[in-house]
Amino acid sequence: MTDNIPYLDLPAQIRGIRKDLDAAIARTLDNCSFCLGPDVAQFEKDFAKFIGAEHCVSFNSGTSALHVALLLLNVGPGDEVITTPFTFVATSWAISYVGAKPVYVDIEEGTMNLDPKLLERAITPKTKAVMPVHLYGQSFDIDPILEICRKHKLPLVEDAAQAVGSKYKGKIIGTFGEISCFSFYPGKNLGACGEGGALVTNNSAFAARARALREHGSTVRYYHEEVGFNYRMEGIQGAVLGVKLPHLQKWTNERRRVARRYHKLLKDTPLQLPREAAYAESAYHVYAVRHPRRDELKKHFEANGVGCALHYPLPLHLQKCYANLGHKPGDFPVAEKVARECLSLPIYPELTDAQIQRVVEVVKNFFK
Ligand SMILES: Cc1ncc(COP(=O)(O)O)c(C=O)c1O
Predict the structure, then answer these.
(1) What is the 217 CA–ligand 1 centroid distance (Å)?
(2) pTM for this entry
(3) Which of 163, 207, 189, 177 is nearest to 244 (CA)?
(4) Is 210 helix (H, G, I), strand (E, B) or coil?
(5) CB 180 within 8 A of CB 160
(6) Does the C-beta of 132 come closer than 6 Å to ligand 1?
(7) Binding site membership of 282 for ligand 1 (Cβ less than 6 Å)
(8) pLDDT tens column, 255-288
């Protein structure tokens, strides 16, 4: 009897740093800084330094960070924001929350990120921002997208929720656009013990306004300059993230080790493997393979005790919540095809070579 392999093994990560987490959480209990506080402030400094950005403003989730990013750019009702239909829904939520319209641009089949070749034709006089996603931890092709943004004087917001520690042309992502947003959801590469997120920017005015917006639109307590939100990061999450951040580079290296093993051991199977673009150094938040018999493969994994996941089974333009946009099947054919075929394999720093071998055997048995 072999042990099951979970899709994600958070307990293994927690076990490795449990003492430090206990101490950090105990410190928060002692100082009672439960909303923001010194550990959050320290984490913001450390995270900004890690990214190479001037400012980091933390939030209670990546979704909140994205929402505030669009508010900082004064995107509002009647405006359009260009994004990808193949992402977690929160990218589009931010656009909807400010009353704007998500305008989707299909993805490249190789990288599954927004296709720069299709971007320019989606721009209209109503376009106020471009917000692609560094999906699965691999950067989108930033240079051609930035060039189009500059030509049309449009700000670039990077949804980097899945891509902390990822690089584009050798430089860590987070400062290519005006604002980048990260998620510290527990399963992310850098995860809190609860919800968390951040935006980073080199723009001081944006950072100052973001700090006010996350705290009820105020800089002086009980005086409110604009309608704001309760989007503060919890003190405990700042303490936890402070413990985890020093491990991130090592964890990213380990994720890349797992990806290399999969590449090597699966390359002769009928699966289509994720392709790392020449410009990218992926943080491998997700290792998504593709095959037309995806649903059967998923059942086969489950029957053999190997966890897997679907990121994502239905592109956003076909979701019920966006029926009002009037899209139909066939509008974004690449996203639709990838959504039908993708399956995410287990990938985390603690995954052993023996476990990888077992995942590979399960794949090979499927095709026997
Ligand atoms: C691409 C993408 N954008 C936004 C989010 C939202 O982040 P959060 O779950 O922290 O709100 C996530 C993560 O869940 C994500 O994967």
Answers:
(1) 23
(2) 0.98
(3) 189
(4) helix
(5) yes
(6) no
(7) no
(8) 999 999 999 999 999 999 999 999 999 999 999 9
